[in-house]
Amino acid sequence: MNGTPLTLTPLRKVTVVRVGRTAQTGPEDVAAAEEPLDVRLQGQSFAIIMRTPGDDRALAAGFLYSERVVRNADDIGAVEHCRHPDQSKAHHVVNVFLRGNAAEEAVRHLDQRRRVVANSSCGVCGRTSIEDLRSDIPPLTAGLRVDAAVISALPDALRERQATFEETGGLHGAGLFDSSGAFVASAEDVGRHNAVDKVIGGMLLQDRLPLPDSILMVSGRVSFEIVQKAWLAGVPVLAAVSAPTSLAIDLAREAGITLIGFVRNGGFNIYAHEVRIVGV
Amino acid sequence: MNGTPLTLTPLRKVTVVRVGRTAQTGPEDVAAAEEPLDVRLQGQSFAIIMRTPGDDRALAAGFLYSERVVRNADDIGAVEHCRHPDQSKAHHVVNVFLRGNAAEEAVRHLDQRRRVVANSSCGVCGRTSIEDLRSDIPPLTAGLRVDAAVISALPDALRERQATFEETGGLHGAGLFDSSGAFVASAEDVGRHNAVDKVIGGMLLQDRLPLPDSILMVSGRVSFEIVQKAWLAGVPVLAAVSAPTSLAIDLAREAGITLIGFVRNGGFNIYAHEVRIVGV
Predict the structure, then answer these.
(1) Which of B217, B263, B225 lies closest to B247 in space, CA to CA?
(2) Crossing angle of the two packed helices B192-205 and B56-66, in degrees rounded to 10
(3) Shortest alpha-carbon distance between residue A187 and chain B (Å)
(4) Secondary structure of chain A: what % helix, strand, coil (to 5)?
(5) What pLDDT digit, counting tens, does each position of A67-86 carry?
(6) DSSP secondary structure string, A214-276?
(7) Which of the residues A125, A162, A226 would you substitute to probe the B interface, choosing the one with the greatest number of B C-beta atoms within 10 Å?
(8) Which of A21, A177, B86, B199 is the most exposed, having the fewest neighbouring CB atoms within 10 Å of its CB?
(9) B122 in active site
(10) 3-state class of A147 per DSSP?
(11) In 10 A of CB A183, how many CB atoms?
(12) Residue A147 has pLDDT above 80, yes or no
């Protein structure tokens, strides 16, 4: 890192030259920290994730859950930061040790990733690979009902938990709430997907998956992958401050997920499975 | 895709239930399209990119440039959509055929990616892999000077080109301008990185890299990877509507890139190499 110390907190002080900002003249500002996390599986590097430090163990667990390397809490023997004596480096490595069959499957999984890259041919025109992106789990049928007023209140409830975002404007947030709107968990990260992985990974480490009475609220837009993560975690209601993509809508309809976008100014749009929202 | 036709345009009509929005009562809305693109190298699947259809050839070229599989326009023999008779599928596959040594190196590159995953051990605590994320090219020394008023005008100039964003609020934009603020190229995508890859890939296909007299303006935040892409393309000034991350700032300082954030309301913050901005 050429002498720049690795950051261990979600914020870092930076010097800044302000132009046309008479109200703020200080030469110091804070930026959302972004550092690479090396996720190791059975001691081997599995992925490098650019992330905001904090909740690293939950992030590693949630990432491996989304990648379907880990299916449930029982698969995990240990999730721990590297014990290397140089802590400034060790904090950017998380070792995950799987148990039993999951450990063997992890090795196969690595081989499979390789095979997917190598074997697709133009004859199938991407179909095999593209279908690989989808879940093979059944649609969610959770019968929870959520009051429209609960949905409208979620952005403020999430923002209250997002201390860093307020300071830097640079972080995505994800929050888990129950069907009455009560706060369950939240996380923030420079990466939209990471924030969701941290929240879901934290619940996984507590063996609290699936989450049939839950609402996942995200601060930005909703892409395909966010819906996929909600599906895998069994979260039946997904809401966002901004827009969903077309494929996010398709997948939510297929997954039995109530998908809500543009939650702002007291209103919102429902794109899929509106039956769970009452008092509309 | 279970009967849902693949989308070939950046927008798709969707049905929506509006709650608390008396002003907009129509049951139809448009969403930013998101579909997987299979980038094939010498006929083999190299990566699946979730992207907004449009500028697919530029995206494939820019992506491979960022991955350093392609070093310049001469490396590229052809970049073309798949010719499979089923056009709804073929539009989501781009075949890239490399020439000469680049073709051989591409195969080695695939092997290398595999080796990086397999060989890191906890002894180096991620250092090797993390250093792999950085560029080995020299810092940019381009001597261009840009008036502060040019920077302040960029968000509006970019927004004028972003027809889809206005309609859906769901797309990131990236625009290339010269040092006088004149428009050169732009692209939009659900993925922040994709929008940049499309712009840079388009210039690559026209053999117009590097870009020493250019400013790259992006609609959202600036992460490490965006700075890396600007560096590789030789773009010396990078500006964003929102915040940079800490690692983006570190890398810009190292890369000789002028990094500007929070370009809004007539002002902005400079985080690195402010010497290129005049009239402050």
Answers:
(1) B225
(2) 100
(3) 17
(4) 35, 30, 35
(5) 888 999 999 999 999 887 77
(6) EEEEESS-B-HHHHHHHHHHT--EEEESSPBBHHHHHHHHHHT-EEEEEEETTEEEEEE-GGG
(7) A125
(8) B86
(9) yes
(10) strand
(11) 14
(12) yes
